[in-house]
Structures are given as C-alpha cells and as structure tokens.
Amino acid sequence: MDSDSRKVNGVTLNYVGGNEECEADTSQKYELKVQITCNPDQSTLKYINSEDDTCSVQLNYESKDSCPLFSLNQLAIFLNEYYYLWGAGLIIAGIFVGFFGNHLINGVIFLITATAVFALGTVGIYGILDSFNVETPEWANWVILGAMAILGLIVGYVVKKLRKIGIAIIAAWGGVMLGLALNGVFLVENEPVYYSIIVGCAIIVAVLAFKMEKVVIILVTSFTGAYSVVRGISLYAGGFPSLTQLHQEIKSGAMDWDEFPKTYYAYAGGILVLTLICVLYQRAHNKKKKGHH
C-alpha cells in the first residue's frame, strides 16, 4: 500500500496486485486505487464514482477526514528546498552576532534589523498569498525574497544611524526569539497565550535595554547568535522543527507529546550552553576593552 497526497487535495492509496500480470496488458499489474478527496463539509465517507479499465480500478470518495490537519505553506516549502543555503548563512551570522555583538554593535544593529524586516515582510507577503490560494512559481519566490532583502538592508542602514532605536529593536527581536523558544519548550497550544508570551517577552526585554543597555546587549546578542548557530546546524542534522511550524502542528492536533521530537530539548540545551559561552566571551572581551582605556 502506498500513500501519496501530492497530486490530489486529500489521500490516494494504491494497491498493487503483487507480481500478477494483467492479462490484457502484460506490461502492467492489476491495480486498485482509492482516492479520498478533502471536503471539509463532508462528515462521513461519501462515494463519488469509479474509473476503471481492464487492469486498473479507481474508486473516488470524499470526506473531511482526508483533509490535512497541518500543511506547510509555500514559503516553508521553498525554504526547505534550499536548506543548505540558509543553514550556512545562519551559522555564519550566528557566530558574528553571538561572539561580537557587543563589540560590533553597529554592525549587529544593521544585521538584526535587516533580518527582522526581511523575515516579517516575507512571512506577511506569503501569508496574504496563501490566504487567497495564490501559488507562486520559483522565480517569483526569488523575486519576493530579493525585494524583502533589499528592503531589510535599507531599513537596517537607516536604523544603524539611530542607536537607541536600533538597540530597542535588537532587544525586542531577542525577546521574540525567547518567547518562541518558551512556547516550544512548554508546548503552548492556546493562541492568545502563545502571542501574549511572545509580545510580553519582546516588551520586557526592550524596556530592560534602556535600563541596562550593556548587559541586555550582551545577553540578547549571545542568545540570538547561539539560536542562529544551532538552528543552522539543525537544518543539516534534522530533529529541530521551526518554532512557528511547531506551534501550528500542536494547535492543529497533528502533534502531541508522543509525536513531539524529544531532540528539541537537546537542541534547546545546546542553545543555552552556547549562549553561556558567548556571554562569557563577550564579557571577557569587554573587560579587556575597558582595560585598554
């Protein structure tokens, strides 16, 4: 039995009759195909029709039970296709931010602001496209990513000149990443609670940045850099789902504790350890810098 839902919005099951050849055409084997199309309004399995020839029979049904609990959007599918590019980029950027965030603060403000604008803009555009069921060809995906990258670079350059605003953005972005990580660790399913944690963490960390600028910069850049490195490694090693994808799967019921990849906690531990290493390195570097003045 083979399950293949790529060619139909639902489920297709193929039953092949072993090694028995079809008498009418010996190049084929007897085959039964059961196709169940997704229909959210059909509560029970409903027979539609059948299609058959001498060697193959196809039975067509529809049911809400064949509708996906969760499916990747166009952006996730496109990004997954080129995981090796994003993985390398995340590792390199993470090392830069994690170890040199405080020392090269202007560069980090530029990089994180550009990344935030790129990420939020791209997610927003694909969210709109998906809501209208608009499918984009591969060249259009590259155009969208390129346009958002250019916009991110422009905004990053402008914000770099505004230090206080830039530091607030860095802190808020670090808070968003922390909120997403906490939601994943505790398997938060409730939508209001999920977003309250993200927004709350962003606001708290941004406010603290105005009170304890140096400390918050070191902590946030260390955590953000560590997360980026570990996320980049996971794109090659696997076992560490996207934090937003994880929430969608939990919310839809497609994933529970038994299905949850326990390797998530190993990666989370790796992020904590690498964050600590980055903090210690930045603090030591900061003390040396003070000693020279």
TrEMBL record:
List GO terms (cellular component aspect): plasma membrane
Q: Which UniProt keywords apply?
A: Disulfide bond, Membrane, Signal, Transmembrane, Transmembrane helix
Localization annotation: Membrane
Listed Pfam families: TM7S3_TM198
Q: Sorted alphabetically, which InterPro entries does this protein's record hold?
A: Man6P_isomerase_rcpt-bd_dom_sf, MRH_dom, TM7S3/TM198-like_dom, TMEM198
Record bears the keyword Membrane: yes
Residue stretches making up the MRH domain: 1-69
Can you tell me where the transmembrane regions are? 82-101, 108-127, 139-159, 166-187, 193-210, 217-237, 264-281
**Which branch of life, at top level?**
Eukaryota
Primary location: membrane
Q: How does it sit in the bilayer?
A: Multi-pass membrane protein
Name it: Transmembrane protein 198
Annotated source species: Strombidium inclinatum
